[in-house]
Fold Peroxisomal trans-2-enoyl-CoA reductase.
Amino acid sequence: MLRSDTFNAKIVLVTGGRSGIGFQIAKDFLQLGAKVIICSRKEEQLQKAAEELSNFGEVTHQACDIRKTEEIQQLAKMIKEKYGRLDILINNAGGQFPALAEYINDKGWNAVINNNLNGTFSMIREMANTFFIPQKSGVIINIIVDVFRGFPGMAHTGAARAGVENLTKTLAMEWSDFNIRINCVAPGIIESSGLDTYPKQIQDMFEEAQKAIPLKRFGKVEDVSNAVTFLSSPMAEYITGISLYVDGAQHLNFDKMGLANVLKSFIS
Ligand SMILES: CCC/C=C/C(=O)SCCNC(=O)CCNC(=O)[C@H](O)C(C)(C)COP(=O)([O-])OP(=O)([O-])OC[C@H]1O[C@@H](n2cnc3c(N)ncnc32)[C@H](O)[C@@H]1OP(=O)([O-])[O-]
Ligand SMILES: NC(=O)C1=CN([C@@H]2O[C@H](COP(=O)(O)OP(=O)(O)OC[C@H]3O[C@@H](n4cnc5c(N)ncnc54)[C@H](OP(=O)(O)O)[C@@H]3O)[C@@H](O)[C@H]2O)C=CC1
């Protein structure tokens, strides 16, 4: 629905852009005129995705683990040398594993908090200091998760994403002087490569739980990407500090205990 030149000459970084939701976001920005950089940990898959995306426009890729600040700094350096600026940052990289809270050990907790909260903050800080604050302009979108009613079965990611949601509100205030807009997109259950990482029993539970989603279907990667491109566009230039739920109203009417109950059944 957006004009095909909406993001002409804009430079966009999509973390985790090699797969699933991030891949669709990268593709849509390219089709709307942007030049896109994708990053993630797995070099080979990243390169393959970049090759595929190059059918739609100019794509650059660089391996970067968002948990490693020095790798983020190298990424910023590359973008500065190649493009001299960055206009839009999409923090999509992330993930977790299902587990009841009492079984999450320190290593697992820290892995998920580092991935989803600390890594996201480091990425935001480095890109803001290198580009957005000196430019006095920038747009940041953080992909979180529907954590409206907590996240039974994934306490670590619930805590991390709630942290990102609150960080987003803070930065919308602190960085308004620099003309930086920052928002979250909170997907419900999205049919994407990410879901394939879950055990079959959990995927079956999601299938069954679909009936409780008011719009009676899972989301598509396009649903998430549409929200991201809208919030990044001039159409949303007065919107900052919000979370846009892309979930078919799941956050209002969904048995949040479903996942936890499946995990309990593994144990009993
Ligand atoms: C409703 C749907 C909503 C959301 C959907 C999506 O998000 S879809 C998107 C979904 N996409 C994704 O989620 C993809 C991205 N996800 C990931 O990369 C991983 O899940 C990660 C976030 C833990 C990162 O891990 P990493 O790179 O640090 O690698 P690592 O393997 O070294 O783990 C470190 C420690 O974590 C612990 N631990 C890990 N797994 C399990 C487990 N199954 N069980 C128990 N514990 C587990 C364990 O302690 C392990 O250490 P150990 O005991 O092995 O020495
Ligand atoms: N699918 C769903 O139902 C939902 C997904 N989400 C969130 O949306 C985002 C995308 O998910 P989706 O596309 O479904 O799943 P994927 O697993 O396909 O995507 C995760 C992406 O993040 C990258 N990534 C993970 N950890 C790191 C890291 N430390 N540094 C850099 N890149 C990393 C992965 O690449 P690599 O392995 O190469 O590092 C991968 O490209 C995630 O944050 C996810 O939690 C939220 C709600 C629902």
